[in-house]
Amino acid sequence: MRRIDADELKTAIEDRIDHIPSNDYDEGWNAALNTAIDEIDNAPTVKTSKVEHKAYNEGFKDGVEQGIKLSERPQDEWIPIETRELTEEEKEEYPDATFMYDCKLPEDGEEVLVTTWSGDVSTDTFCRDDGCYFESYCDEGDVIAWMPKPKPYKEGGEEE
Predict the structure, then answer these.
(1) Residue 110: C-alpha distances to residues 13, 25, 67, 106 (Å)
(2) pLDDT tens for the chain, residues 1 to 160
(3) Model-level pTM?
(4) DSSP alpha helices (H): ranges in 22-157?
(5) Which residues have a Cβ under 8 Å from the Cβ of 141 and sit 6 or more positions away?
């Protein structure tokens, strides 16, 4: 059984929280990090099976590491689009869907920059209504990455 210092792990995660979030992206990552902290607080200290305990620790550790890695992602970095096949349950729930996104996605109605499979860069709006899709590019593989639009230029470098 691998034991960890839960308090040290929580401190490492708490150090990565943006205490004055400036946008929805920051708030989303803060929420993810707070969820990781809650999971640490609620994690069982002993499991009956060493195999279960090892798998739990490995999965949890990987999840926390991924959360930390994503929280450190610069705001001006492309976020790759990843998709997966639908589960049988999802096929029943979304009969018209041909794939599921398996990555961080923009907020509903958010206008973002997108890169297409052909290398073009443009702005598009992400929609969440009868499904999740980019308004101008609905097919799987059309958009290969997205990023939030940068803040507009302000003379003198002042931010809003």
Answers:
(1) 28, 11, 22, 6
(2) 567 788 888 888 888 887 777 787 878 888 888 888 888 888 776 554 455 566 666 667 767 766 666 555 555 689 999 989 989 998 898 888 888 888 889 999 999 999 998 999 999 999 988 778 888 876 778 899 999 998 888 887 665 5
(3) 0.50
(4) 24-42, 50-71, 88-93
(5) 83, 117
